[in-house]
Amino acid sequence: FINVTVKVPLNADPGDHQAAVVVTHTTKQDANSGLSIVSRVAALFIITVPGDIVQQGSITALEPQHYLNWFFPVSLYLSAHNTGTVHMDPLGTITIRNVFGIPVDEIAVKDWYILRNSSRQRDFAWSPLFALGYYRATTSLTSFDNQPLSSVSAGFWVIPLLPVLILLLLIGAAALAYATSR
Fold first, then answer.
1. What backbone phi and psi angles, to 5 degrees, belong to 172?
2. For 60, what's the count of Cα atoms within 13 Å in the CB-facing half-sphere?
3. Which of 132, 182, 124 is nearest to 154 (CA)?
4. Are 105 and 61 in contact (CB under 8 A)?
5. For residue 155, what pLDDT band results from cuts at 50, 70 and 90?
6. CA angle at residue 71 from 70 to 75, to 5 degrees?
């Protein structure tokens, strides 16, 4: 364990500031060749200076990797922009609904941090056991002490290639068998 003390300057701007403590250890392997191994470990910190902070940000987009998906998983990209002076940590769910608007699955959104004055994108994968047809993904997220964030949604199609091909082959075989039996 290493104790770290942070002394914030009196004139520091309110809001988040980032810092890191880096510990380096060098081990000499061979005195004749001069080779050595350098190991480094870093611990990152987000330090919030109290004062007149701004908690402001939004979810900017939810987009599927492909509008038409032949295979699973379906990749979804969620983008957020933080315009505030403290970090944003969106928390909640992405709800997947079928063509009738019935929820069929939820994807948890957690462990995601967007630092002050920055944008980030995160990938999510939806892996249903089976899906066929049109689906809509919609966000329901909060941040900044449980304040709701703007909801975004995206639609996409899922047509699994292998089951559809097997079904078409079965229909073709049945039609051929029917035609030859006449």
1. -65, -45
2. 13
3. 124
4. no
5. very high
6. 105
**Beta-carbon neighbour count of residue 114 at 10 Å?**
22
- With bands split at pLDDT 50, 70 and 90, how would you rate the model's confidence at 37? confident
Q: How far is CA 65 from the centre of its chain?
A: 13
Bridge partners, residue 26, by sequence? 38
Which is nearest to 75 in space by CA: 23, 6, 147, 124?
A: 124
Question: What pLDDT shows up at residue 161?
Answer: 85
104-121 pLDDT per residue, tens: 999 999 999 999 999 999
Distance between first and last Cα of the chain: 84
> Which 3 state secondary structure label does DSSP give 59?
strand
DSSP 172: H
- Over pLDDT 90: what percentage of the chain? 74
